[in-house]
Input
Amino acid sequence: MSDAIPPIDSLSHSPRILIAGAGDVSDVVHSLPVACCLRDHYPDAHLGWLIGPEVAALVRGHRAIDEVLEVPPGWYRSPSLVRETRKALRQSKFDITIDCQGDLVSALACYLSGARHRIGFTAGHAWDAFAWLNNERVVPVFDHLVDRRLELLTPLRIHHPRVRWDLPIGRQDQLWANQCRSQIRSARLAILNPGADCPSKRWEADRFSATARYLADRYGYRSLAVWTTFEDRLMAEQIVERSEGTVTLAPDTTLMMAAALFQTADLLISSDAGPLHLAVAVGTPAIGLYGPSRPSDRGPYHQVSLRRQTESSSHGFWRSVDNYAMTAIGVEHVCEAIDELHASNQIGFSRAA
Output
C-alpha cells in the first residue's frame, strides 16, 4: 500500500508542477494562462516549463515560472538526448505534469518526468497514440485552445479561471519599443504581419497594402510591416513598396522586442501566426485572417476573426493546399471589420508611454 498513488487533490499546497509545451509561439501563448492560474491557485508551488530554445524567452523571467527546462529541437529522436532530458526532469522531482499540447513531445516529456500525476487530454482530443502516457485524462468541452488547456486544471479543482498572460517584457525592450513608436509621426499605429508557417495561410501583399492605404485615409494610421523569416521580409517589402507611403518596414526584432512593439500599437492585422496571438497576449486589438485553420479553436482570443471559406482543419492539410481560402478574404471584408472595431470604440489612440 505504500506505493499507492495519493489522490491528486490531496497533494500539499506547494506541489512541484511541470507544464510541457515545447511548441511554437502560438502554442506557448495559448498555454501561458495555465501557468498564471496555477500560480494563483498554488502560490507556494514550484512551477517548471519544458520548452524549446527558440521560444523560451516567452517564459524565462515570467512571474509564474520558477524553472525553465530547455530541450533542443528533435530531442525525442535521439536516445542520448532522451536520456539527458529524462535525467533533468527526474532531478526536478515533479509531482504533477500538465500536457498542454497532447502530442508525442509533450506526452513523452511528462512520462519521462516520473510524476505520479500526469494530466492530459483523453484520446480523440490528443494524439491517440500518446494519450495513454498520461494517467489523469480530461475530456474538454470548449473549442478554443486557451479554454481547452485551462480545462486541464479541473482535476486540481481549479474552475472558472481568469485568463491572462503576464508576458515578461523587460524594461529595455519596453524602452526600445517606445523609442521606435515615437519615431512614427502618427496618432495611430497598425502592425501588419504577412508571415505564416505555410503558403495556405498567407494573405496577399497587395491586399495588405490596400488595407494600409484605407487605414491611413480613413483613420489617420501609419502602419508597420513586421517579419521574422527571409521570406516574410520579402513580402513585407512588397507591402511597403505598394502602400503609397503609408507603411514602413519594421526593424529586425527579438521575440520580446516584438511583443513590446505590439503593445504600443492600436491594431494588428495578421494571418494565423505567432504575432497574432502575441498581440492578443499584450492587449492589442487584433484582426485574424483565417483560411484553412479554424478561428473557433485557434483564433485571436476574444478578438476579431475573418474566414470566408470552410476547409479541413487538419494540420497536414494546411501545408498541402494553395491559399485559395485566404484569397476569399477581400480587402473590403477587412476594412469592414476595421470600421466595426472603431464604431464599437474597441480601438483607441496609441498606448505608448
About this structure: The chain is about 35% helix and 15% strand. The domain at 8-156 is CATH 3.40.50.2000 (Rossmann fold). The radius of gyration is 21 Å. The chain has a mean pLDDT of 88.
